[in-house]
């Protein structure tokens, strides 16, 4: 490792130096065949740790452990209030180890540690607490049935919401700890057991979270964590016949594969996939306010956000002034390693991701877009990419149609609002959108016409535990967060008793 380890707290340093094992049935284990892979610090391209590369045999062990824990033993016997208390304890432990977790996240993913503290770690603790509350508040219904066929009997009928069973959770690298919490929270609140597979780029915070799961007192097998790549470990989990439900967050391309594998056995499946979210500025926004909003929508987390506002629709009259103000903000963001306190934007997560983003920007310029600012930072080391503004790309070009997943926004002028609705809805995605204006009636007329799971007004990228989150169209299937998430982690059982 390099000099910046002096910025690490002793706990983070100790964790990084220790051996990395997977969590299966309450045991810390290497892969059955001894295979390993490495994870790097994307700011320095140095190796952080060697991690077990799980194969199908390890995934099978983890699923069997989760099955056993679900069907029998202490977890099966726990009451809702026991599950609530355990989740609260886990949230407290995340909070008690917040600085260590934030530093691990900043190092493994590259994001600024200030963001890791405020968003990833505080968000994970808050979400686990919110879900703890639901453990005791889920319920079925009492039904007043008629049963016209049998008039001589009376009936008592009700529904039960029962835990769906073993959950296979596959998560991406952009918010590693928070995505782990988004999967564990609802599963553990309602009594499921879990096999969690973090992304191969960022396996470390999930492994530390696994230690906290044990410390909190969860019985063996309730939470299992398998580290490995998508093709072997992820695919083995998605296709495992004894997994009852798959919860996936990642690309639309892989989401279709994972969803298809789940559908082969009619396993329950939720998919949180890509986006190409439009940011629509109405003509009452000043160029400065529009630029500030647009910057927040696209540059947060290096643009590696599924809801990133990557298409910016601006009224033609103020287009040039707004684009210039946005470029000024972009040029003022200080690129640096996530661990350094004054870093405004960290590196992208990997060389592959930087090449992908650079390829899109080049394709955009070749398609006729103007590069207003940004591009590859071309630093001697680290996967740094400058905050980038493209203007005037053709609506059909890849930079307007496809998810780039980097700090790249395409600014596009419009002449009337009717036209912009069609263009905003004109991609295969439908995850999120934002509308910016203080003209209440125009805003309210726009909101129902936008095909997206979340529509923000005068803000972007803000989530709340109580707000359902998910996509229309090819941005996914199902909803996470809020009460709505339990539609996908429970089965409804109808019970009829003739009395
Ligand atoms: P990905 O979809 O390949 O990876 C997400 C997760 O799926 C990882 O844990 C990965 O190991 C796993 N996975 C990969 N192939 C699998 C398979 N065949 N079966 C089961 N699991 C599998 O995403 P990526 O390759 O890391 O990134 C590629 C692009 O995906 C990005 O450029 C971005 O556009 C998009 N992406 C979107 C999100 C999001 O939150 N919407 C997150 C990450 C990446
Ligand atoms: Mn890493």
UniProtKB/TrEMBL annotation:
Alphabetized PROSITE patterns for the sequence: ALDEHYDE_DEHYDR_CYS, ALDEHYDE_DEHYDR_GLU
Keywords tagged on the record: Oxidoreductase
Record domain Aldehyde dehydrogenase: where: 28-495
GO molecular-function term, one example from the UniProt record: phenylacetaldehyde dehydrogenase (NAD+) activity
Gene3D superfamilies: Aldehyde Dehydrogenase, Chain A, domain 1, Aldehyde Dehydrogenase, Chain A, domain 2
Record-linked Pfam families: Aldedh (PF00171)
Enzyme nomenclature, EC number: 1.2.1.39
Active site positions, chain numbering: 272
Classification via InterPro entries: Ald_DH/histidinol_DH, Ald_DH_C, Ald_DH_CS_CYS, Ald_DH_CS_GLU, Ald_DH_N, Aldehyde_DH_dom
Family: Belongs to the aldehyde dehydrogenase family.
Name used for this protein in its record: Phenylacetaldehyde dehydrogenase
């Amino acid at each position: 490792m390099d000099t910046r380890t002096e910025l690490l707290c002793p706990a983070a340093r100790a964790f990084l130096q220790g051996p990395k094992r997977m969590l299966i049935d309450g045991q810390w284990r290497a892969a059955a065949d001894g295979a390993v892979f490495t994870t790097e610090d994307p700011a320095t391209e140095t190796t952080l740790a060697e991690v077990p590369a799980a194969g199908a045999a390890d995934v099978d062990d983890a699923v069997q452990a989760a099955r056993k824990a679900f069907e029998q033993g202490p977890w099966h016997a726990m009451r809702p209030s026991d599950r609530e208390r355990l989740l609260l304890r886990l949230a407290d432990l995340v909070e008690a180890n917040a600085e260590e977790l934030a530093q691990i996240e900043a190092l493994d993913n590259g994001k600024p540690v200030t963001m890791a503290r405020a968003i990833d770690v505080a968000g994970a603790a808050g979400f686990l607490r919110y879900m703890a509350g639901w453990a005791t508040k889920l319920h079925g219904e009492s039904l007043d049935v008629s049963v016209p066929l049998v008039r001589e009997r009376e009936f008592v009928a009700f529904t039960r919401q029962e835990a769906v069973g073993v959950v296979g959770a596959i998560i991406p690298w952009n918010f590693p700890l928070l995505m782990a919490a988004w999967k564990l929270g609802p599963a553990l609140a309602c009594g499921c057991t879990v096999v969690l597979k973090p992304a191969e780029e960022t396996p470390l915070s999930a492994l530390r979270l696994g230690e906290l799961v044990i410390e909190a007192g969860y019985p063996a097998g309730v939470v299992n964590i398998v580290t490995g790549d998508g093709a072997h470990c992820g695919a083995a989990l998605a296709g495992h016949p004894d997994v009852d439900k798959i919860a996936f967050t990642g690309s639309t391309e892989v989401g279709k594969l994972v969803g298809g594998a789940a559908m082969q056995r009619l396993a329950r499946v939720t998919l949180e996939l890509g986006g190409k979210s439009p940011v629509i500025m109405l003509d009452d926004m000043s160029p400065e306010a529009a630029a500030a909003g647009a910057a927040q929508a696209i540059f947060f987390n290096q643009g590696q956000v599924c809801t990133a506002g990557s298409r910016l629709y601006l009224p033609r009259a103020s287009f040039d002034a707004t684009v210039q103000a946005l470029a000024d903000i972009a040029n003022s963001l200080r690129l640096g390693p996530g661990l350094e306190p004054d870093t405004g934007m960290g590196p992208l997560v990997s060389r592959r991701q930087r090449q992908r983003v650079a390829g899109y920007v080049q394709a955009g310029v070749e398609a006729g877009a103007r590069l207003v600012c940004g591009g590859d930072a071309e630093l001697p080391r680290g996967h740094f990419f400058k905050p980038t503004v493209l203007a005037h790309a053709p609506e059909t070009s890849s930079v307007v149609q496809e998810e780039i997943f980097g700090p790249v926004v395409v600014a596009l002028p419009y002449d009337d609002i009717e036209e912009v609705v069609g263009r905003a809805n004109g991609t295969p995605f439908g995850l999120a959108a934002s509308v910016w204006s203080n003209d209440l009636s125009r805003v309210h007329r726009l909101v129902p016409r936008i095909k997206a799971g979340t529509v923000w007004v005068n803000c972007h990228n803000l989530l709340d535990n109580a707000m359902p989150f998910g996509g229309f169209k090819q941005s996914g299937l199902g909803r996470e967060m809020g009460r709505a998430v339990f539609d996908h982690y429970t089965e409804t059982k109808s019970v009829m008793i003739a009395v």
